[in-house]
Amino acid sequence: MKTILLEVTLFTMWFGTSAMAVEEQPKTLSLQAVRQCLAVGGKVHRMGLLQYERCERPMSDAGKVCNDSSQCKAGCFYENRSGTPVPSSRKKITGFCAATDTPFGCRSYVEHGRLGIGVCVD
To answer: Could you give the number of structural domains in the chain?
Structure first.
């Protein structure tokens, strides 16, 4: 229970800080930022509730089977590919490394081989 509380607190602190930082940046990326994004194989999209332009970069480990986010560049997430009920947090599971670095959407983390917190970011 302490772990979940700590994770929620850290998540709130991180995204609270990010939300403040987003308001200070321009809504559209500079031409230089767009070029840098494209040079690394990224795609420029308007994302999130505020519809700011953002570079969405593909991850080289996308789709790799994982047991923890420490094994992935952009996080290890549970994907219910079989259509079975979501497992309890006590059951050992594997996840998949995120395909891109976008923080937006709903997902459940895999932490130490178990289902972690579910998060929705917009």
So the answer is: 1
